[in-house]
Structures are given as C-alpha cells and as structure tokens.
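General statements about sequence and structure are easier to judge against a single worked case. Part of our work consisted of pairing the sequence of a single chain with a tokenised description of its backbone. The amino acid sequence and the backbone structure tokens for this protein are reproduced below.

***
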Amino acid sequence: KDPYKILGVDSKASAADIKKAYFALARKFHPDTNKDKSAQEKFVEIQEAYDTLKDEKKRAAYDQFGSASQQPGFDPNMFSQGGGGFGGFGGFHDFAQAFGAQAGARGGGSLFEELFSSFGGAGAGRRANMRGEDLTSSITISFLESCKGTRRNVSVQPIVDCASCSGSGLKAGMKKTTCSACSGTGQRTFVIDSGFQMATTCNVCKGAGSTIPRNGECNSCGGVGKVRIKKTVVVDIPRGVEDGMTVRVPGAGDSPISGKGPTGDLLVRIKVAPSKVFTRQGVNLYHEAKVPMHVALLGGKVRIPTLEGDVDVRVPSCTQQGEEMVLKGRGVAPTFTGETGSLFVKFSVQLPRSLTQRQRELIQLYADDIEGR
C-alpha cells in the first residue's frame, strides 16, 4: 500500500509534514480512544506507513522501487548497479539499456538480464556460468627483444579453485543444503505496484540454489571454494611488438567466483626500452652513420649496426651530408604476415676540429685547384 496515501501527504512532503500527519492520524485511530473495530487495523497501517517514510533509506527505496521495497528480504543494493530508478526512462528499450551498461565487466551478463531472467524460466545464477576476470601486468623488454621476440616469466596471483575442497567450499563429508531464501531456485521475485514481477539473483546463495550448512565451511577457503595463489606464467612475446602493445595469455587469469565458467586471461602490457642506435617506424629502422670527411670525399667503408650484428657498407665517393642508403630486409620482421622492413642509413659527414700543418697544406692545394689558382 502507498504510505503517502495512508498518511494523506504528497510524495514531496517534508519530514515535518509527514510527522504532523502521522500524529494527527495516530490520535484519531488509536485503539485506546477509538473503539471502532477497524481502528486497530487502521492504526497498524498508519504506523507501518510512518515507519517507511520517517526513515530516509526506506523512503528512498519506496520512491525508487514502490511496494517491492516493503516486501520481506528486499535488498535495494541488488538493484543499485543500474544507476537509477524506474522513472525517467523513455520505454522498455531505455530501461534495458540503462541496466545493461556494465555487462562487459560482469562476464557477459547484465543486471537487466538478471532482473528479468524469470521470463526465460531459469534463475540468473543458473542462466550461464560467468567468466573469470582478466589479470593485468606489465614488463619492460629491450629494443632488440621487441624486434626479434623473447620469452619472459611473469608473476601473478590468480583466483583458483581451492585445492582442499576442489572448489566446493565444503569440509570433507559435508553436503550443501537447499537455500531457504529462494527455495533452491537461485532467484528471488518481488512484485511492483502494477503487479509486474521483478526477479533478481538470490543474494543469499548468489544464484546457486544451495548453501553451505553452519560449520560446514572448508577451513582453507572459508566456504568460498576459491583461493588466490602465487604462480609464474611464461609469456611468449612475439617478434615485432611495439611499445604499448598488449600480449594476451589465454586462461592465465582468475577463475570465476561462482560456477564453472571459463577462466579469464592474463593481459601483459609491453614497455620497450629505447635504442641508442636505432629509431623505429613500423617495420623499418633508421640509423645515423658518422662518416669521416675523407671517406665521404674519396669513398670507402663504414661499420653499420644491424639487428644481426655490425656490417660494413661501402660509402660512394663524394657522399653528401644527409644522403641515405637503404638496406632492404635489415629491418624488423612483422609480427604476423608481410615483408621484413628495411634499414635506412643516413650519412652524417664529420669535419675535423683541427688540422696538422701538412693536412692544411694539402687542403689548400685542393682549394687552389678548385679556384684555378
């Protein structure tokens, strides 16, 4: 029943107005002063209405969920994930969308699906096994390792089935009992003012339909059936990874908290240390090679670093500052498919900072020859 109508106040009435209306009705229908047979029943109704509206939390719950909030076992927290009440939605689609906003974080199910799972004839806890959560980690590798691939050990602490009870949460020899709150259905149903039924996962058994008897909990996991352990996961990092990429290790994450759903994954974020000799753009590498002035003029060889080690390359005579040479196939092999990149070598001609007398004389002869003197 509507407590506002019972007390004769508006839904926006202040606490003082509600209290004033209550005392007026309580005096009128109190069994000690009103001998009418229906007075006591009316007085109880008034008292229950005031109990609802004088409490801020109970009043807020009634404003949001209607008479369902007054039913035994109602827990407003079971409906809090939708981010709002029933009012203000533009129809059934908007209502579903609002309650499904966090579906991805809940292993594929949404609160909307839990609320209305009764229409499908099955409890939310038995609708589908939830997926375990993903774990995240990060590692730093060298530039060379990022280009050629490597293998690293990563320490994680995933949730797994308790080894002592094999995930049942029970002591040896104990058995689970039918949940008394939902009678084994795994869901609880509440009725809205219009007669519309709202179903949600049972908050006592978490949708399982059964509970562990008192003192029957496994000593290792406390009846949860899950524990968190330390373990080392070997992560294969493929060639060609770049800074900021993530490597996924399937099945190395958490087991689901309830049910026998699939295990989550381990997501390893890769940080690549910068190289002192290369810069990278995709599969191509870039290197600046210092070339002595005489080699740039006369031609010769310079040593160039590559991913496979240093190699000598021939510098053509009269090489200019900033000219490039391309070494095909000396870049980074692609992670999946495609051609290996190239190494682009940019020549930086180095001028001497000082000259001997002989060197000066020789260069002067060169200058005189150029100028025709």
About this structure: The longest strand covers residues 284-292. The two ends are 116 Å apart (CA to CA).
